[in-house]
Write a structure and sequence with these properties.
Length: 139
């Protein structure tokens, strides 16, 4: 029931959640930066701002937003990590209810609780084993 808190699973989930949160911060920063620079370029082309002002405001925005977004990272990471593990615990509870309460067979339980990442790795391994066996027979 608490397999997700074993060292390897906990380490993998921590890396996944951390990389997703960091990627979202970076992607949102780049998107907002592009939008902000486009707005400043529009002001510059309409002669409401000089090129020097544009570069200064752009630099100020980048410095301010970069530090602000990364200051929020620990809180966002903590929230995402708690959400991830709460969801995993809820899913484990559902599995337990299905197993104990409804006596669901192993085949149906596997279909309901399949880990897509592990399934893909297992399927790849099976394909590679099958292709190596069929390749050896043709030689």
């Amino acid at each position: 029931f608490f397999d997700q808190f074993k060292f390897r699973s906990l380490f993998q989930s921590t890396l996944r959640v951390t990389s997703v949160q960091a990627s979202q911060i970076l992607a949102n920063y780049l998107t907002d930066n592009l939008s902000h620079e486009q707005h400043l370029e529009d002001l510059c082309t309409s002669d409401q701002m000089s090129q020097v002002e544009l570069e200064y405001k752009s630099s100020q925005w980048e410095d301010r937003e970069w530090s602000k977004r990364w200051k929020e990272f620990p809180q966002k990471l903590q929230k995402a990590f708690v959400q991830y593990h709460c969801l995993a615990l809820i899913m484990r509870f559902y599995e337990l209810v299905l197993d104990l309460g409804f006596k669901v067979g192993d085949n149906l339980m596997d279909r309901l609780t399949m880990d897509p990442c592990r399934f893909a790795k297992d399927r790849h391994r099976m394909i590679m084993e099958h292709s190596s066996m069929s390749g050896d027979g043709n030689r």
